[in-house]
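Throughout our pipeline, every protein is held as a single compact record rather than as scattered files. Nothing more is needed to write down the fold, since each code stands for a local backbone conformation. For reference, a complete record is included directly beneath this paragraph.
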Amino acid sequence: MSFTNNQAFPASINPMPSQVTVQDNYIDFNTVAGGQWAQQYLPELYEQEVERYGNRTLSGFLRMVGAEMPMTSDQVIWTEQNRLHVAYDNCAVAAAAKAWPLFRITITAPAGAAATSGIRNGNTILISDNATGLVTLKALVENINDVGTDGYTIECHAYEGAALAGAITGGSCSLFVYGSEFPKGVDGMSGAIEPNVTTFSNSPIILKDNYELSGSDTAQIGWIEVATEDGTSGYLWYLKAESETRLRFEDYMEMAMVEGELNDNAANFSFTTVNGTAGANQAIKGTQGLFAALESRGNVYSGFAGAAAPGSGALGDFDEILQQLDKQGAIEENMLFLSRSTALDFDDMLAATNGGFASTQSASYGLFDNEAEMALNFGFSGFRRGSYDFYKTDWKYLNDATTRGMSSAIDGVMIPAGTSTVYDQMLGSNIRRPFLHVRYRASETEDRRFKAWITGSVGGAFTTDLDIMRVNFLSERCLVTQAANNFVLFKGA
């Protein structure tokens, strides 16, 4: 291969007319600082790597869409707004204390729920029986009392006649607030509803790796032929094993963000210090990866498979997922990272329904600037079902027999595209953030997104008298999974 540049080479790197291994023509593909030739003059190499692994890995795609951002503290905290309206389940009509149309409903709730429940005097409510959900009753809340550790009781006035009293009384019921009503000349609504929010957090972990090569071992040397601006050609050398170690470390960074777990065990861990002596026990916090976040806060769907007949099998399963998405906020664009078997189930489903649903399965490709070619270059195919657009790709991580492919527990993930609004504690305001993104430690003097440096006495380093070249890798990062209720984790049956 041949590369041409239109600028002078850095003074520290000199292409040689012959394949001669010297310090002056060594390329370090890992170090981004210090004016390395590979980063300055071969940007297409980096783009090829990102495109290659963007189709292969989740983190590669996140890098392509710019979903990585720095953080300065050792914890990222964000707040998510919960539902604007609340449905109250597991309610019961209390024993008759007053003549119809007056009645009482007992609501199970935490202590002090009357102030934060969302139900106030003057609210109009709709009540439905839990047995069938078909019998409903509308009423006006006149009083809230009996607040205790187990809940509270609301006193209501039914709008409708006594014919519905028997259908509701004595059974469990559910209710929600749909408005309010006040007579003339009375005071307004008493009290206010506080914002219903939940705070989440995650902590970065430190990942490390290295590769060592003796000074005399040249078996792993690779060569790049270059052409300078004056038309002369030359060679630069690099270590193939070093490049492979870097690629493996990038896979580690991805897998840690996907598989990470918080440490629930009280025991600390013992590590050796830099000089090899035994170190004191140190706490390992762990980090919450994608799978763990979806297991605790997302939608988990098991056993997506089967025939593709409308209303059954795979299509019935998928429509069930869409109905669940309707309940969670209805994010219109979603990305599907699937195992091979699950991707084939999707293909069979789409093929079987193509004739009947052609008009509804043509995706807009809005995520890719409405260019189908761009989506295909990234390995995504699009389709539409209902009001949703989906971009599907095989996730080889789930197929590789040396990683997740060795287990059939996870079949894929559905990730909402775009951004969500969260409250940033540091900024003190609401900001837009991608639903799924990586935060890495960085400051004005230290960038720990991806560090690589050389120690030893080979390859440009002169830090020890050992005849070795050691390439060190480090990253400190965590994954932020916002609005996990809009994600879907596909699990095996």
